[in-house]
Write a structure and sequence with these properties.
InterPro entries: KR_dom, NAD(P)-bd_dom_sf, Sc_DH/Rdtase_CS, SDR_fam. It is an enzyme of class 1 (oxidoreductase). This is Glucose 1-dehydrogenase. Keywords: Oxidoreductase. Its EC number is 1.1.1.47. The protein is an alpha/beta fold. It contains eight helices and seven strands; from the N terminus they run βαβαβαβαβαβαααβ. Strand 4, helix 4 and strand 5 form a beta-alpha-beta unit. Helices cover about 40% and strands about 15% of the residues. A seven-stranded parallel β-sheet has the order 3-2-1-4-5-6-7, with helices on both faces. It has a single domain, classed as Rossmann fold.
Length: about 250
């Protein structure tokens, strides 16, 4: 049955930034599909506990991915404790905007450190274990900002960080296909989360974003999670190297 290809029974998944927003929704989707899920974040406001309360196999691990070695230690710890890692979802990210001439090195280092460096390091750490076990799936969360230059906000550094995630995903997909390791990315548009609530609270920005979206609304974390489940399971077994846009049509205009 086709629906069975969306199952993840017996799989071990790691979702970074998995205690809120899009990451939490992806963790829930994977858990509902039968996976044992490890979520990581700097803090957990209760997301992992809500999943446990629903009877899912979920555990939380604290990790600050800005720290050198944190991504590698996180991946190694999951493999040590669970014996394998089948699905790696690199969702952790930060948003920052501002004119380039005012964007200092500390902000740049933080932005690139979380949005790109930690993704590269987690993928790197997962390659050998996934190869040894016969394959796996990596899913990196990018952004439409990796495709376009957003307006009205100025965010050259953020856009560049997400474009790097997209290109990393394509390059790894090419490199690792013969090892049965699939690598894809999702490019969400404007999704209602704690990270974007400040932007939506700005009437000027919210109007531009809505007016430029043919569907005339923002997306939800659950809508992104449904796509993520497809990309993390055998439902997408012949897909690798894709950057899939989910934006209500925003980038059509």
């Amino acid at each position: 049955m086709i629906i069975e290809r969306f199952r993840a029974d017996g799989k071990v998944a790691l979702v970074t930034g998995g205690t809120r927003g899009i990451g939490l929704a992806i963790a829930r989707a994977l858990a509902e599909a039968g996976a044992r899920v490890v979520v990581s974040a700097r803090t957990d406001p209760g997301g992992s506990e809500s999943l446990k309360a629903d009877g899912h196999q979920v555990e939380y691990r604290q990790a600050d991915l800005l720290e050198h070695g944190a991504a590698e230690a996180l991946v190694a710890g999951v493999i040590r404790d669970h014996g394998r890692l089948d699905i790696l979802v690199n969702n952790a990210g930060v948003a920052d905007h501002g004119a380039t001439e005012d964007f200092d090195d500390d902000r740049l280092d933080r932005l690139m450190g979380v949005n790109f460096d930690s993704v590269f390091r987690a993928c790197r750490a997962a390659i050998r274990p996934m190869r040894a076990q016969g394959g796996g799936v990596m899913l990196n969360i990018g952004s439409i900002s990796g495709h376009i230059s957003n307006i009205p906000q100025k965010q050259a550094a953020y856009n560049a960080s997400k474009a790097a995630v997209h290109m990393l995903s394509k390059s790894l997909a090419s490199d690792l296909a013969e090892d049965n390791i699939r690598v894809n990315a999702i490019a969400p548009g404007y999704i209602i989360t704690a990270m974007t609530e400040g932007g939506f609270a700005n009437p000027e920005w919210a109007k531009v974003w809505t007016d430029m979206t043919p569907m005339r609304r923002a997306g939800t974390p659950e809508e992104v999670a449904a796509l993520a489940l497809f990309l993390c399971t055998d439902a997408s077994s012949y897909m690798t190297g894709s950057v899939v846009t989910i934006d209500g049509g925003y980038t059509l205009r």
